[in-house]
Q: What sequence folds into this?
């Protein structure tokens, strides 16, 4: 997958709103707010915040609302930072290409569009790297996007690579993303899990929906060594709605994978 340099998208002479006034800027601010809103130019990641930006910069704004929650820590509550990031947003890429050393013909890689079309999870198959998922590791653990996945090229993998600590239980490693959903409408979450072995201490994967625990799958529930189905039904009360997978693993070493995450209307 081709890498994208956010600094190459900066455009001179744009304008942004500051303190209720339209202010001319000599250049865009290549700061963490811009990188948080647009971490990659792929359509799936870009579309939501770009649509908010389309209306945000057409009027003077004194609030910073409506954006994905991943931007809050980086952008804070200053409208000027959101306006600057919106003005500097990179061009969308309909496809991403890479070239091999043996051929000058570009190879088109996945465009990260949700599958099926009504899936509200972006990059649920991890075919386009990690973003917009956000991973959090703990001591003696690590995460990676590995191949092979479940009937696909890639999957998300958690690894326990050192002694188990209290963090494994109290602040477990996780991966999450915010979903744009219809409040009050029933949805079904489906995903596949893989455990490298079934032992009493291997542990489990937990599902948190909007920070509330709703489901766990144990290393021995469906057997080890192969991807297995999991299904959770829920009705969101807010949007965006956070989906988080937690890895409560108590054995070293251990490998656990998730793949093909899909959330569709029931």
A:
């Amino acid at each position: 997958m081709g890498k994208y340099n956010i600094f190459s998208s900066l455009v001179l002479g744009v304008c942004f709103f500051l303190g209720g006034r339209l202010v001319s800027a000599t250049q865009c601010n290549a700061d963490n707010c811009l990188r948080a809103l647009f971490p990659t130019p792929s359509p799936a990641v870009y579309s939501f915040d770009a649509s908010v930006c389309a209306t945000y910069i057409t009027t003077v704004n004194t609030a910073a609302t409506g954006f994905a929650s991943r931007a809050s820590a980086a952008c804070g509550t200053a409208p000027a930072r959101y306006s600057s990031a919106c003005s500097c947003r990179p061009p969308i890429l309909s496809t991403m290409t890479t070239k091999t050393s043996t051929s000058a013909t570009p190879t088109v890689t996945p465009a990260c569009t949700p599958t099926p079309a009504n899936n509200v999870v972006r990059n649920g198959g991890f075919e386009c790297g990690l973003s917009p998922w956000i991973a959090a590791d703990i001591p003696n653990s690590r995460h990676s996007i590995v191949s092979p996945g479940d009937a696909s090229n890639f999957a998300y993998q958690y690894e326990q690579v050192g002694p188990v600590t209290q963090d494994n239980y109290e602040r477990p490693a996780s991966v999450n993303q915010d979903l744009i959903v219809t409040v009050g409408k029933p949805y079904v979450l489906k995903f596949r899990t893989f455990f490298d072995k079934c032992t009493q201490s291997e542990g489990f994967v937990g599902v948190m929906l909007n920070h509330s625990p709703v489901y766990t799958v144990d290393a021995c529930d469906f057997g080890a060594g192969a991807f297995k189905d999991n299904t959770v039904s829920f009705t969101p009360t807010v949007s965006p709605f956070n989906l988080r997978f937690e890895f409560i693993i108590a054995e070293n070493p251990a490998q656990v994978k998730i793949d093909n995450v899909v959330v569709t209307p029931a």
In short: The helical segments are 32-37, 43-56, 72-75, 79-87, 167-170. The two ends are 33 Å apart (CA to CA). Residues 1-27, 41-45, 92-111 have pLDDT under 50 and may be disordered. Residues 40 and 128 are 10 Å apart (CA to CA).
